[in-house]
Specification:
Helix 3 (71-87) runs parallel beside helix 7 and helix 4 (100-106) packs antiparallel against helix 5. 33% of the residues lie in helices and 22% in strands. By secondary structure, it is an alpha/beta fold. The strands form 2 sheets. Strands 1, 2, 3, 4, 5, 6, 7 and 8 form an 8-stranded mixed beta sheet that branches. A two-stranded antiparallel sheet has the order 9-10. The two termini are 23 Å apart. The protein is globular and about 60 Å long.
Length: 314
């Protein structure tokens, strides 16, 4: 279960060991795994996506953001639950209520999840919901993890990033979408049992053509709803890939190719808004049966989104 065949991840694991990061657990021990039956997935990732224009000189940089509603965290829940189901089908994933802002504040110190307040908050969630562990997805690595990249490494902020790299001298522009996320397993006492993270540069996310998404050097134009809707699909695709890589580093794979065990959220076209507008992509789970079940659940019942995910993902 814990062997990883992806050469990039193997290389990063070796780097961590040589750099003295062996104290940071990457995989769950057999003892920890044997004690887990009931877990919950907690996302501390904001739904806002950084949208920055990076110029050839720092004074030309523009830092903005746009909100994707619940689509970021809906996708996180879908991928995480899928990876758990593939690797540990005996685990029961429960839906719980939690205050994301409170947890972020408690884990926001320089020592992150190791802070006393964070450990107490996570331990309380485990205890009050009759859990054995929490699976926490957060923007960027735990601050206590020495593998964390600096907040401005490669211009990446924590969470999801859309980067427009603009050369004002020749008009050349590149559009990149990058994810800066990690997955942590938290035990009954609020302690970190394992951390799945790796440098964002290993995502191998290629550059996109700005014209394909109607993106220009004018950031006011780029924040038009029609432009942002076109970007949502690629953002969710990169988010899914990033999460899968984190689960790979956690050891949620067997001896085969990790990519065959990835769970992805795909983009399917919706109807065009008007005859002169192109149809845009909306991030939804790949299975039509799941999509239809989830839509009916939200429309005709008073269940929460997480409860509908649970009901339709069986």
């Amino acid at each position: 279960m814990n062997s990883v065949s992806n050469p990039f991840i193997r290389l990063w694991t070796i780097v961590l060991l040589l750099s003295g990061c062996a104290s940071v657990p990457q995989h769950l021990t057999d003892e920890n795994k044997s004690g887990i039956r009931n877990i919950a997935i907690v996302s501390l990732v904001p739904d806002s996506v950084h949208f920055d224009k990076i110029g050839i000189i720092s004074t030309s940089n523009v830092y903005t953001a746009f909100d994707m509603g619940s689509r970021v965290n809906d996708s996180i829940l879908y991928v995480a639950k899928g990876r758990v189901a593939k690797s540990y089908p005996g685990w029961n994933v429960k839906s719980i209520d939690y205050d994301r802002a409170v947890l972020l504040e408690k884990a926001g110190s320089t020592i992150g999840f190791s802070a006393a307040g964070a450990k107490e908050a996570f331990a309380e969630l485990v205890r009050t919901n009759d859990l054995d562990a929490l699976l926490v997805v957060r923007a960027a690595a735990d601050k206590a993890d020495t593998a964390q990249q600096g907040p401005r490494e490669n211009f990446l902020d924590e969470g999801m990033n859309v980067l427009l790299k603009n050369n004002s001298l020749n008009g050349d522009m590149r559009l990149e979408i990058r994810g800066n996320l990690s997955v942590t397993v938290i035990g009954k006492q609020g302690e970190v049992l394992a951390v799945g993270t790796l440098p964002a540069k290993l995502d191998k996310a290629g550059a996109l053509q700005p014209d394909d998404y109607d993106v220009s050097a004018d950031m006011k134009h780029n924040h038009r709803p029609a432009v942002l809707e076109k970007l949502e699909g690629p953002v969710i695709a990169v988010l899914s890939n990033r999460l899968n890589l984190c689960f790979d580093t956690l050891g949620f794979v067997d001896g085969s190719d990790p990519e065959t065990q990835h769970v992805n959220v795909v983009v399917q076209p919706t109807a065009a808004i008007g005859s002169d507008e192109k149809s845009h992509g909306q991030a939804i789970p790949a299975a039509d049966a799941f999509e239809q079940c989830f839509a009916r659940c939200r429309q005709y019942t008073d269940r929460s989104k997480e409860q509908c995910f649970d009901a339709c993902n069986k």
